[in-house]
Amino acid sequence: MSDIDLVKNYFQLLQNKICNSLERLDGKACFKNDHWSRDGGGGGESRILENGAIFEQAGVSLSHVFGEEMPSSATNHRPDLAGKAFQAIGVSLVLHPNNPYVPTTHANFRFFTAGSKIPIWWFGGGYDLTPYYPFHEDVLHWHKIAKSSCDPFGDGLYANYKQWCDKYFYLKHRQETRGIGGLFFDDLNEMGFEKSFEFVKSVADSFLEAYVPIVEKRFNLPFGEKQRNFQLYRRGRYVEFNLLYDRGTLFGLQSGGRTESILMSLPPKVRWQYNWQPEPGSQEEELYEKYLKPCDWLDNSQ
Fold it and tell me: If I label 154, which of 40, 41, 91, 226 is the partner at 20 to 30 A Cα–Cα?
């Protein structure tokens, strides 16, 4: 079995594990499976859950695509790979809950190989959390789990990948982070294949441990029209980031991937409002003032 077969097998198991867990958590809706193929080579399986008891929309997608030339989104920061054949396999998810007190979340794990004679390979991925009405204990839980998944592989990994996440998921035109961050890594190969793969599995396997307890504590909290409208307004930031900055979205579109699967990350409902400003002293202002800025959440002095 080749390296990419090992990764693909794990990603398939991960997709199954996450979908099964989310169906049990939601208790109402089930995922619909949509298999697709790509004209240039490869294909995938998109799974979509809609109108659930907890999730308004949840998408968990697996893709394995290949071609004769790397898309520009993948070679902008690696010009040495321009013109090389490639294979890319990954699993990605975005979960949009009904209740504004439950955060939106995103996770992605991917493996690339490029070239044929002496293939170049690397892993990338991570996960992040986008709350609308944050609870500090949830933020601490999220980052503690993220750190615990990194710690066996090096003392500085969590700090480095947490900082990378804050920098990556930053909306420059808004001068704010997308949420409270998490982990982001790319071009991961310096540990060698076996250890790099073990690290990716450690982070990916920790995702449900990080997210599910937050959902279970918050999904039954009462909310009104004000909170729902704010959730829909803040979802607009999610759309802006994915369409303007996200390398995964750009890679999928430029590589001829399936548009429906690539854009499944977008929320089913969203709103924009001209020059909206939070009321002083409100929960909405607290989000802007405290949670949309890079922060060392696990620093005891915070």
Answer: 91
Residue 196 tokens read as 């790099």
pLDDT of residue 1: 43
Classify residue 68 by its DSSP letter: S
* C-alpha to C-alpha distance for 173 and 61, rounded to whole angstroms: 29
pLDDT class of 37 with cuts at 50, 70, 90: confident
Beta-ladder partners of 185: 125
Rounded distance between C-alpha atoms, residue 110 and residue 91, angstroms: 6
Owner of token pair 């029209």: 225
- Is the pTM of the predicted complex or chain greater than 0.70? yes
Residue from 108, 131, 133 nearest 178 by CA: 131
Catalytic residue among 64, 96, 106, 143: 106
CB-facing half-sphere around the CA of 296: CA atoms within 13 A:
7
Whether the Cβ atoms of residue 205 and residue 148 lie closer than 8 Å to each other: no
- Please tell me the distance from the alpha carbon of residue 288 to that of residue 292, in angstroms, as a whole number: 5
CA distances from 271 to 30, 140, 236, 250, 263 (A): 27, 29, 6, 23, 17
Which residue in 161, 154, 42 sits closest to 109, CA to CA? 161
pLDDT in tens, 263-295: 888 999 999 999 999 999 999 999 999 999 999
Which residues, other chains included, contact 192 with Cβ-Cβ below 8 Å and sequence gap of 6+? none
Q: Alpha-carbon torsion 224, 177, 241, 198, what sign?
A: negative
User: Is the Cβ–Cβ distance between 49 and 24 less than 8 Å?
Assistant: no
Give the strand pairing for 176-177 and 86-97: unpaired
The whole-angstrom separation of Cα 148 and Cα 169 is 21
77 is catalytic: no
301 falls in which pLDDT band (50, 70, 90)? very low
